Amino acid sequence: QQRVALARAIVLEPSVLLFDEPLSNLDAKLRERMRFELRQLQKRLGITSIYVTHDQQEAMIIADRIILMNQGRIDQVGSPIEIYKRPASQFGAEFIGLANISSGQVVATGATTRVRLADGKELTSRATGVRAGDSVEAVCRPEDVRISVAPLAEINAFPARVVACYFLGNIADVFVQAGDLSLRCQLSPPQILPEGTEV
């Protein structure tokens, strides 16, 4: 039915196609396949399309440009990579993908930015546009966390303990506690770490 409705719309050769959550009623496997079909069809036909969805993966696959809305207001506009890698707000960081978010205060800027978290840990970042004394939210994606059972002599390395580890096939979802800092990590290829492992 979804394909037939799309064909009926396309045959009219519209200058703009409007989609309002067109895949929301499909089962998971068909929905995933249709995302790619829609993207390929849109590219082949070259029809400008406005696509409304609450599904972040759908937006990332289908869009050239995302307009992220929060309570009726535009939160951020950018490519999927920009929205994911450089979220403009805590809402954006939490809504698109998974994120570890910690409150802190900027203690120094320059070639890098140093942020002190509430528990005293200091992080080094390449963030720009902030000044010493600013309150900030430090964002780290789970796939950007590296876990090692051997000590690491690197910046942003902290001793931690594995709280839980889940095997998900292509990744392992690992939750660690570093003092007051809780982090979710996604390891690919998956590495299974027993609860209590010091990392």
Summarize the structure.
This protein has 199 residues and is of the alpha+beta class. The chain contains five helices and eleven strands, in the order αβαβαββααβββββββ. The longest helix has 18 residues, at 28-45.
Description:
The protein is an alpha+beta fold and 199 residues long. It is 23% helix and 33% strand. It has helices at residues 2-10, 28-45, 56-62, 80-85, 90-95, and strands at residues 16-20, 48-52, 66-70, 73-78, 100-108, 113-117, 122-125, 135-140, 161-167, 172-178, 181-187. The strands form four sheets. Strands 7-6-5-8 form a four-stranded antiparallel β-sheet. Strands 9-10-11 form a three-stranded antiparallel β-sheet, with no helix packed on it. A two-stranded parallel ribbon has the order 1-2. A hairpin with a 2-residue loop joins β10 (172-178) and β11. It is globular, with a radius of gyration of 21 Å. The protein starts with a helix and ends in a 12-residue tail after the last strand.
**What's the overall geometry?**
globular
- Say how many strands there are: 11
Distance between the termini: 51 Å
Q: What would you call the quaternary organization? A: single chain
What would you report as the Rg, rounded to the nearest angstrom? 21 Å
SSE sequence, one letter per element:
HEHEHEEHHEEEEEEE
Record the strand order, biggest sheet: 7-6-5-8
Report the mean per-residue pLDDT as an integer: 92
Report strand %.
25-35%
Largest sheet: 4 strands, antiparallel
